[in-house]
Amino acid sequence: xxxxxxxxxxxxxxxxxxxxxxxxxxxxxxxxxxxxxxxxxxxxxxxxxxxxxxxxxxxxxxxxxxxxxxxxxxx
Amino acid sequence: xxxxxxxxxxxxxxxxxxxxxxxxxxxxxxxxxxxxxxxxxxxxxxxxxxxxxxxxxxxxxxxxxxxxxxxxxxxxxxxxxxxxxxxxxxxxxxxxxxxxxxxxxxxxxxxxxxxxxxxxxxxxxxxxxxxxxxxxxxxxxxxxxxxxxxxxxxxxxxxxxxxxxxxxxxxxxxxxxxxxxxxxxxx
Amino acid sequence: xxxxxxxxxxxxxxxxxxxxxxxxxxxxxxxxxxxxxxxxxxxxxxxxxxxxxxxxxxxxxxxxxxxxxxxxxxxxxxxxxxxxxxxxxxxxxxxxxxxxxxxxxxxxxxxxxxxxxxxxxxxxxxxxxxxxxxxxxxxxxxxxxxxxxxxxxxxxxxxxxxxxxxxxxxxxxxxxxxxxxxxxxxxxxxxxxxxxxxxxxxxxxxxxxxxxxxxxxxxxxxxxxxxxxxxxxxxxxxxxxxxxxxxxxxxxxxxxxxxxxxxxxxxxxxxxxxxxxxxxxxxxxxxxxxxxxxxxxxxxxxxxxxxxxxxxxxxxxxxxxxxxxxxxxxxxxxxxxxxxxxxxxxxxxxxxxxxxxxxxxxxxxxxxxxxxxxxxxxxxxxxxxxxxxxxxxxxxxxxxxxxxxxxxxxxxx
Lengths: 75, 187, 413
Hints:
Chain A is of the alpha+beta class and 75 residues long. Chain A has helices at 21-28, 63-66, and strands at residues 2-4, 13-19, 37-43, 50-54, 57-61, 69-73. The radius of gyration of chain C is 24 Å and the shape is globular.
């Protein structure tokens, strides 16, 4: 099932299928790219940032960015 | 000769810096900013070499002032060699930055640091194979324990600019031989 | 040859497949703690507990050394000894260096403690060494621990929601906390913010609303029961004016994107080096300015300049801010050192109600960054500095007047 990263539930995993083009370069340095598996760790209330783990590294990204990333959720 | 130490924040760059340089270390502000960096000196085969501890950055596409300075320092030292310090347990995103620097034509040595941490996480890296594909020296290190530092220094002379097309070709070759070997022996 | 972001990743994925084997990863206790401290349900209570712990240790450590040791040393031995041996009692040099004393029933009397004496070698040294030194050391020690363990990025994640509202993002907590030690490294740490707009807002807020460790140390010592109110006014101001600045300063305030590294065991040698460097850095800047500040205020008193300024500015002080005109002296001293200014305010506390004292200390905090911070801001560019000063002027009058107004409405001014 495809979901925006911002809509994922705690501990859900999945492979990134889409990143809006203006964001791709920005998140590349953190290891986030299309095809890579990530896990959603947590998100903060009231439009706070979303935490994900990619390749064992935890990254926190603002909600607006998380809304521009689509993930094929596996579990 | 000048050597730039580059890598992500928290990969042990400063530990390398302290291991490589002696007492003669200066800390200064990058002109026009409040971002500070350190530089020092070491001797390699009798030659005085300047070592610069560049502020940590995740890519050459800066997302804050410190990263801007890191990129600027790289660009104004066109003839420098670069030691790319990579957290071995997060090798992919480390290679992303290393590739960006290679693509700009800098001679590079890769230090796969925190090998012990990677091993704890059951991540095994074939440094020799990585070296053959990239065409540049790749040294496994545990900087905090001093492991691999000597080899790293020794290999700096082998750093040379490589053509990305060669890396692409090597990677394709490697995958072909791999699949041939797999067909024979893998279980 | 340069690759596109996508091509570069394709190549790296290919190389990684050939050279790296990822075995099964099992979660460690460290990972579990890492996640618990960043999830809001558990992370926010932990953050509050850590801040509270930080505060208690800070207060008791600083208090232990200042009250238990330095106050006795300075008041019982150092001051009487200097009063005795320094030549020219009652003269101007004596007044500036040792003790300005006071006139009681027409006779010159010496001060009984190092805060009332106003001398360079008495008040100046006591504030710098006896009060500020212990506060700064314990502050930087605990901060270095939190930094080296890897807690700060998690605190940044938890606070992002709030700080995003004032045009900053979670990582702004790093310069903010650092500024609670000293504004100079705090201003330097604004480098972790992305745009000019963010750095300007951050720097301005730091310079205006964040009291440094020296000032906190002395407030903790002299007016512990008022400090909570003073800090509350400053925090509220930080958010009100941050919100306003975010609306009026042109430019972008991008969202945050940070790496949250795993927890690590801190290296003792690293902490030692960090704390040593910061304390040294602080004192190289602080000691000369405390002593110089003491001397300048002493000279201005002797020349009658401060009394003159107090009278001239009385309508502003009394009418607008609601504080007595005697606060003119401390406010001038605050140009050089805010810790000194607070000590001098405390020395005239008989003239003020507690609310006036709160107002006066808040004014000392917000009205001008100390000279060292000023110099640091200039490094970022004079345009930014002028902008910050313009904001500062508006804030001092608006916020100072507002606090007075609140006092009037509450009936305590």
